[in-house]
Amino acid sequence: MPTWDEVMARPYRERIQAFRDPEIRKALSAEAVEGTVDQQGGMTDRLGRVRGLFNRRWDLVQVFMTTKGQNRHLEGKTIEQIAQEQNKSIMDAFLDLSLDEDLQTCFQAIDRNHDPKVQKHILGSAYTVIGTSDGGGRPHTADRHETSTHLLGHWVREQQAMTLEQAVYRLTGKTALMHDITDRGFIAAGKIADITIFDPDTIAEKPREPSATLPGGGIEVKREAVGIDYVVVNGTVLYEGGQLTDALPGQIIRGPLYQARA
Fold first, then answer.
1. pLDDT of amino acid 60
2. What is the pTM of this model?
3. How many CB atoms within 10 Å of residue 223?
């Protein structure tokens, strides 16, 4: 999308000015909303479906986090929904919100697994591995640390995608067995005590909150939980009664494959 590439490479103030320009908005919309991928030098498969990072599905682009309280009600809504509610075009709805918050609004594109029924089916399969990960030693705004909390609260308690016992096993014992980590994953004599004590009736994640704690004033996404009473790592309590302790018992865990290669 050449117009997007050119505008996004501009300095901050010039970028804001460009996003306000009606003619530039038309070009941006032509590439990201109306335009075909082939016309923009992109790729399609044999069925004409978009291949690439952005699929032009604005019904799958959500407002992830806003910076102004007056816009908080838009969080979780798609750009398509907002455009319909405000009687605007897709591009105007997207850019008007972005400009109102000085380009600090966070969006997320749900480019896969966006059907709740399919998600439930996949999660219920014994062949599905549940977890989250990231690579690289860099700070960023991705908040996937609520994965286990969301699984236990939403998918187990509310959607019954699996039993509580199955969920706990798949988060703990099954993961340890898969990676051949023999001293963790189960509560038993002689094993390392990594334990979370939670209330299955109330466990849930709180709303996302921005925190300007990254270098250069960058925004970090924080999300606290409810329904968790204690977290024990390596036999040491590091979370109790809603508060972190001063303990830092965590350590890097390496399986036998790493040790063999070393």
1. 86
2. 0.73
3. 15
